[in-house]
UniProtKB/TrEMBL annotation:
Protein's name in the database: Cytochrome ubiquinol oxidase subunit I
UniProt GO MF annotations: electron transfer activity; heme binding; metal ion binding; oxidoreductase activity, acting on diphenols and related substances as donors, oxygen as acceptor
Location of region: Disordered: 464-489
InterPro entries: Cyt-d_ubiquinol_oxidase_su_1
Amino acid sequence: MFAEADAVLLARIQFAFTISFHFIFPAFSIGLASYLVVLEALWLRTRRQVYLDLFRFWVKIFAVAFAMGVVSGIVMSYQFGTNWAVFSDRAGPVIGPLMAYEVMTAFFLEAGFLGVMLFGMDRVGPRLHFLATLMVGLGTLLSAFWILSANSWMHTPAGFELNAAGQFVPVDWWAIVFNPSFPYRLVHTVVAAYLTTALVVGGVGAWHLLRQPRPEAREAAAALPGENPALPPSQAAARTMFSMAMWMAALVAPLQILAGDLHGLNTLEHQPVKVMAMEGHYDSHPDGAPLILFGLPDDARQRVDHAVAIPKLSSLILRHDMNAPLDGLDTVDRSLHPPVAIVFWSFRVMVALGLAMLALGAWSLLARLRGRLYDWPALHRAALAMAPAGFVAVIAGWITTEVGRQPFTVHGLLTTAESASPLDAPAVGASLLAFIVVYFIVFGFGTWYILRLMAKGVQAREPAVDGDEGPIRTAGITPGPAERIAGGG
């Protein structure tokens, strides 16, 4: 069935499919690991049970998401050798060490302390356990650091020279790691992960607030989360997580928009063709470019049909001058154009969801000022509807970034067509179908399990990951607590 297909296109689809699945889990686990650090720090400082209950609730979800992220990441990395062998050969001297640094620093740090974080609270003491949680959180950030450094180098390559075999050979590791787009991409992606996690936490809190009976007394509704003794533990936990998530949305969404603007200006400097595609600018505008809000890009005719635009606003955003000239795709050879329609619409999806996050944060501030944060069902329904928005936004942003780089894998130096392995289309197509079937079964079940945990909610005196009876022991080797007491041990 794939005999007439394009092997390179199938390899691109396969990588896009697997990395889209993979990206969902790190985008969640990066923010959730930091959230767990905050929860445990608050518990150590205040000793309020609600923070410990929330920690134990979310650490179970983190464990599942982390495991799925590791599995999906391993599968994705194998494709560098199977489908993209030429890329691995030519860019390997740069990309290989960066990915190895990620394993040796970030993944080893996470894996080394993960077991202590999951199972060690009652065994190593609260302070040492907090150190383990802190190390896991740091590990997720280090992982993002190295992976984004490698990815950013592919967009803005620096610190290398080409040898006789056409390989990218490192000459300046500082320039490679801290390449021109890396700081902007790191901040934008990590903040996106925090917002993604905040929306999920807020959505779970909103779900349980909607399911719980509304308090009869206005004082109960206005009380600080977890401080009203009349509130049951599950309701106190729902209020606490919802309040914390809405603070994150209100404070961080504006910062993310600022970070996105700076990232866009950096992209305009180093990858102007990508920005042309994002803006839908087929033609140059010498006297100020319009901001096209909506339209239907037509690559064949090199125009945007049915465009709804605001005159000169694009120049104001990109150049901070309404009359600043902006080049269009008419200044670039057609063979170097990315697929404009995909980049155009994925960018708008990302921006629209970012503005929706900003609106949700502003709404929560209004509710907080009115003392209605916990008894405004419309706000809770909006937060619940926005729960998956962060995942959609990060995928849309990834599509904008990676599709906008086409037709290159290493921008301006190595094309996608040159990077592919010499495979026949049926071989790539068969593995693509296998990935689709396995991913939807395995990760579909994992996602269903996470949703079940979220729907269950926080219980009073939330049990730890391994319950209250300690780890399962092999029968006849190590006696459990009851046997030791009975035997006088």
